[in-house]
Specification:
By secondary structure, this protein is an alpha/beta fold. It folds into 2 domains: 3-217, DHBP synthase, CATH 3.90.870; 242-331, Threonylcarbamoyl-AMP synthase, C-terminal domain (Rossmann fold). It has helices at residues 13-28, 50-60, 87-96, 113-116, 130-139, 159-166, 205-212, 251-259, 287-303, 319-331; strands at 3-6, 33-35, 42-46, 69-71, 101-106, 121-125, 143-144, 172-175, 186-189, 196-199, 216-217, 242-246, 264-269, 280-284, 308-312. Helix 1 packs across helix 5 (130-139). The structure holds threonylcarbamoyladenylate and magnesium ion.
Length: 333
């Protein structure tokens, strides 16, 4: 049976530490705990316990060849997990941790193959959320955690999303309200000759370049090539409704689909769209607010029985690019 722990933002850090203790103990003993981070909710297990890690794959229905991110509560905790820490990693950690940046580094022998899907590298990040940091540090373990959704569903940005997807297939759920960023972390591979952004997130390639001088971004179309990040090859972030990314949402476009008997949802920024005839309209003030609410909106569109979700292209720098990346992935059949 799942047990829920509720944490409100009035609590100070010591109170949070007390509140998460049972869940941290459970993690240390091989259990599964869903917890909030600043990006999305994660489904955690002791990364050094292969049996515990396998339970994550089972609960999510996740393909075994898709490796997990290890979460730490201090930068020093990465040392035993990796065989080498390049200077670029030190600089990026100083600039962005705790925060939504995952680093791919050569793994040490300590890290089980179950975490890395048998590969030679390991993904690590230090989340910027007091509950996640308290949980990890009290457990005394590095914590492997993918997003706490069923494989193929949009990542959970509230505890309720976790309940919907995983039901009782975990031991504890720590509910601390909605996550602040709403999109998964930026994944940066530091084992390639030129550091490569494998997944866009709230920390942009430009920000990374400003610290380490160079970084390339894996183009969406490069994915036909051998897959450097296995998670990229799966259809991701997907609601049941069909997602279409369009340059502009107009009343005419909406009514064309409605004329085919389809229920139409729209997603766009406030400054752009003039359409007002959709069956479910979501308008956001800024790209950050859109990012924070994107996955909840996709889930809501499904609950409302929408057939098509029209999303308007946003071509601003920063988190908009990560939003567009997720929408494009969701739009693939
Ligand atoms: O924000 C986040 O990163 C959230 C929270 C919970 O921390 N976690 C998350 O995990 O999004 P997940 O498992 O849903 O996505 C991890 C991504 C996958 O695309 C996976 O293939 C990739 O990171 N990845 C993990 N280890 C890797 C490795 N060694 N090499 C390349 N890609 C890796
Ligand atoms: Mg995921």
């Amino acid at each position: 049976m799942r047990q829920d722990i509720f944490i409100n933002d009035q609590l100070n850090f010591d109170d949070v530490v007390q509140a998460v203790k049972p869940a941290a103990g459970c993690l240390a003993n091989g259990g599964l705990v869903a917890f909030p981070t600043e990006t999305v909710y994660g489904l955690g297990a002791n990364a050094l316990d292969p049996q515990a890690v396998l339970k994550i794959f089972e609960a999510k229905g996740r393909p075994a060849d898709n490796p997990l991110i290890i979460h730490v509560s201090s930068p020093g905790q990465i040392e035993p997990l990796v065989s080498e820490v390049p200077i670029t990693a030190h600089d990026l950690i100083k600039a962005f941790w705790p925060g939504p940046l995952t680093l791919i580094l050569p793994k040490s022998k300590l890290v089980p193959d179950e975490v890395t899907a048998g590969g030679p590298t390991v993904a690590i990040r230090m989340p910027n959320h007091p509950v996640a940091l308290a949980l990890i540090s009290v457990s005394g373990k590095p914590i492997a955690a993918p997003s706490a959704n069923l494989s193929g569903r949009p990542s959970p940005t509230t505890a309720e999303h976790v309940r919907q997807d995983l039901d009782n297939n975990l031991d504890y759920l720590i509910d601390a309200g909605s996550t602040s960023i709403g999109l998964e972390s930026t994944v940066l591979d530091l084992t390639t000759e030129i550091p490569t952004v494998l997944r866009l997130g709230a920390i942009s390639a430009e920000q990374i370049k400003s610290i380490i001088g160079q970084a390339e971004t894996l183009k969406h179309t490069d994915l036909a090539q051998p897959v450097s990040s296995p998670g990229l090859k799966y259809r991701h972030y997907a609601p049941q409704a069909r997602v279409l990314v369009v340059s502009q949402i107009t009343n005419e476009l909406v009514s064309n689909y409605q004329a085919q008997g389809l229920k139409v949802a729209t997603i766009n920024l406030i400054s752009e769209s003039p359409s007002d005839n959709a069956d479910f309209t979501s308008v956001f003030e800024t790209p950050e607010i859109l990012a924070k609410n994107l996955y909840a909106t996709l889930r809501q569109a499904d609950e409302l029985g929408m057939d098509i979700i029209l999303a308007e292209t946003v071509s601003l720098p920063g988190v908009s690019q990560a939003v567009m990346d997720r929408l494009k992935r969701a739009s693939e059949e």
